Amino acid sequence: MKTLAEFQSVYNLPLMELILKAAEVHKANRQANDIQRCALLSIKTGGCPEDCKYCSQSAHYDTPVERQPLMSVEEVKLRAKEARDRGATRFCMGAAWRSPKDGPQFDEVLQMVREVRQLGMEACVTLGMLTEEQSLRLKEAGLTAYNHNLDTSRRFYPEIITTRTFDDRIQTLKAVAKAGISVCSGGIIGMGETVEDRLMMLVELANLETPPESVPINVLMPQQGTPLQMAPTVDSLELIRLIATTRIAFPKARVRLSAGRDKMSRETQILCFLAGADSVFYGEKLLTAPNPDSDADAQLFRELGLPIPSSC
Ligand code: SAM
Ligand code: DTB
Ligand code: SF4
Fold first, then answer.
1. Which residues form the catalytic set?
2. How far does the chain reach from its first CA to its final CA, in angstroms?
3. Residue-wise pLDDT tens digits, 179-205
4. Which of 6, 152, 274, 307 has the fewest CB atoms nearer than 10 Å to its CB?
């Protein structure tokens, strides 16, 4: 059983000691130079019935995001192929749904998963709440991982989302794990929560029956029209401390430096990698928000001495 006190004592170590400790854990459990590049695609955009206060796709807020129906399987296949050619090894598809409805649309998502797997990539989807049966069908289609973030601590959660509960999220994670799909779950920082909330979120994740093998840490990208559009910027050293604590808390997991990289200096990103982050989203767009441009990222990888396709 992991405790808040335990994670606080790690998080509050002198900064260099914390980074060195996280780097040691990283080196002992994972390959130091293996930073996975994942591509992200919004396969169904906007008009979501949930009220997540950070999200540009919620129908509760007036945002500039244009609604798009479910993309065709052919289009997804094309985008996945392009991403693979640029060096992505995981393809993540997101749909702005509360939960998928069984029927032709879910069948199409299953086909997208099959196509991505046939391209030799890991396939991840994030479709909202799932039943056990839907999880099993996704597993049969070859799904590698399911992303469903706890987002924040149990106590801060109702400040951010009121249309589904923290326990609803945990139920979905249970269904995903029961189906034998790898669990990808993390959260967002910068929504007005305290450092204690961030660590409480890690405690919840670490104490799950099946802890996540993949932990995305997103920095809030304030979205026009959402209640959090004016949220203040997160201090980069707080991000680095949280990444290091996440690495120590989940020694074998992928720790994903996710949303918000477009506003980070190269040096902040490199400190995050040193502190144990070992994955980024690669490509100019996340779901609706911008990501660093591919040339800048290719250059960063070259400067780090990491492999990158010569065409990039
Ligand atoms: N509808 C699905 C769901 O919520 O489960 C999937 C898509 S949702 C956009 C996936 C995750 O992206 C969210 O849980 C949240 O952690 C992250 N996210 C969404 N908007 C963000 C923003 N503006 N800044 C940072 N992270 C964000
Ligand atoms: C995750 O934790 N971050 C990604 C992925 N899972 C699906 C999504 C980031 C979204 C950033 C805001 C946007 O593009 O709208
Ligand atoms: Fe919908 Fe997901 Fe956005 Fe929440 S985060 S409003 S569930 S798309």
1. 48, 52, 55, 92, 124, 184, 256
2. 45
3. 999 999 999 999 999 999 999 999 999
4. 307
